Amino acid sequence: MRIDLRSDTVTLPSAPMRAAMAAAEVGDDQYGEDPSVNRLQADVAALLGKEAALFLPTGTMANQVALRTLTHPGDDVIVPWEAHVVLHETGGAGANAGVQLTQVGHGGLYAAAEFETAFRPPGHMIYPPTTLIVIENTHNRGGGRIFPQADAVAICDAARSLNVASYCDGARLLNAAVATGSPAASLAAPFDLVSLSLSKGLGAPIGSMLAGSRAIIDTAVRYRRMSGGAMRQAGIVAAAGSYALRHNVERLADDHANARLIANRLADCPGVGLDAAAVETNIIVFEVSDANRFVAECRERGVLLNAFGPRSVRAVTHLDVDRAACETAVEVMTTVAGELPSG
Length: 343
Ligand SMILES: *Cc1c(COP(=O)(O)O)cnc(C)c1O
Description:
Layout: E1 3-4, H1 15-22, H2 35-47, E2 52-56, H3 59-70, E3 76-80, H4 84-87, H5 92-97, E4 100-104, H6 112-118, E5 130-136, H7 149-161, E6 165-169, H8 173-180, H9 184-188, E7 193-197, E8 208-212, H10 214-226, H11 235-247, H12 252-267, E9 283-287, H13 291-300, E10 303-304, E11 306-307, E12 312-316, H14 323-339
Parallel strand pairs: 1-10, 3-4, 3-5, 5-6, 6-7
Antiparallel strand pairs: 2-8, 7-8, 9-12, 11-12
The protein binds pyridoxal-5'-phosphate.
Pyridoxal-5'-phosphate (PLP) is lined by residues 58-60, 63, 84, 136, 140, 169, 171, 197, 199, 208.
C-alpha cells in the first residue's frame, strides 16, 4: 500500500489526458504559432477575466516573472507570512528581481490596515519603496487557507490609491473558487496580475499561467524568456492544461471533502493539534510532538506526508487519492499519533 499525501503535485496525467497531449496541434510558440498554447492562454484569460494570459513551465517561474514585471531592484514587496515566494523559491526574489520581502499578517492572511502600516512611500531618503503587494490564495503553509475576498478587495484598492501594484499567487486559486462558489474571475478581479498552477490538483504534468492586462503580459513575455522559460512546441503540455481545465476543476470539491474527513478525525485524536475549522480546501497542516518521527512511522505503513517543521506536518488531498484511501490514511495517522511520546 502507498497513499501519497505529500502534495497535490504528485498527481499523474491520466490516460485521456495523455491522449489529448498526443493529439495536440503544435507549432513554434516563440513565433506565436502554437495553436494549443494560444487556445490555453485565451481560455485562461477568459476564466480569470483578464485581457491576456501566458503559459510558463512552473509556478515558481510565474512568481519570479511577476516580481520582475511589477517591481524594480531595491523595491520592497509586501507578502503574507511564510508565502511560497518567501520560503520555497531558494531566494529567487532577491537573486532575480533584487527586491526585499516584508512579511505581514498571520497564518497567510492580512488586512488592508496591515498593508498600510507596512507601506513605505517612494522618494524617502532611507526606506525602500513599496511597489507591490502579494497575496497567496489559497495559502499553502497556512493550510490551504482561502484569502477573504473583502480583504483582497480592500488591500488592492488601498494599493492602487498608493500607486502600488497587486499580484495574487493563485497556484491553487481554483481550489478557492470551488470551495467558495465564487467564479475565479471574481477572485482575480482586484489584482493586476494573477497566477494559476495546472500541475497541482488539476493533474497536468507541467505548467502554470499568468493572467493580466495585455501590457503587463507583454512585459512578462520578456522576463519569461530571460528566465529561460520561452518554449517551442509547448502545445504538447498546454493540451494537458486545457484537458485539466475541462475535466478536473469541479472535482476539486471531492478533494476538499476528503481533507475535511481527515481533519475532523485528526482534530479528535489525542496527540494531534489541529483546528479543523481552519481546514477550508485540500491542505491539512497539523501539529504532533515529533514531525520527523511521525512522518517516518507513517511512511513505514504506506502513508506519505511532509514534515513542515519540527512539530508541523502537512497532508494534501488530490485526484489520485480517493475517499477509501483517505480513510485508510487517517487510520494510520491516528494510530501513529497514539504511539508517539506526548509533549
Ligand atoms: C506550488 C506553488 C508554487 C510553485 O509552483 P511550482 O510549479 O511547484 O514551481 C507557487 N505558489 C504556491 C502557493 C504554490 O503552492
